[in-house]
Amino acid sequence: MERCRVSQAERAGVRRICYLSGTRADFGLMTATLRAIAADPRLSLQLIVTGMHLSAQYGLTVTEIEQQGFDIAARVPVDQTDASQATMARNVGSMLIGIVNALEALRPDALLLLGDRGEMLAGALAAIHLGIPVVHLHGGERSGTVDEPVRHAISKLAHLHLVATSDARDRLVRMGERGYAVHITGAPGVDGIVALATASRDTLCSEAGFDARQPVALFVYHPVLHEVQTAARDTRAAAQAALDAGCQVMALMPNSDAGNEGVRQVLQDMQTAGRFVVKTHLPRPQFISWMAEADVLLGNSSSGIIEAASFGTPVVNIGSRQHMRERNRNVIDTEAEPAALQHAIAQALAWGRLPSVNVYGDGQAAARIAGHLASFDLSPSLLAKCNAY
Question: Fewer CB within 10 Å of terminal CB in the chain, N or C?
Answer without folding.
Answer: C
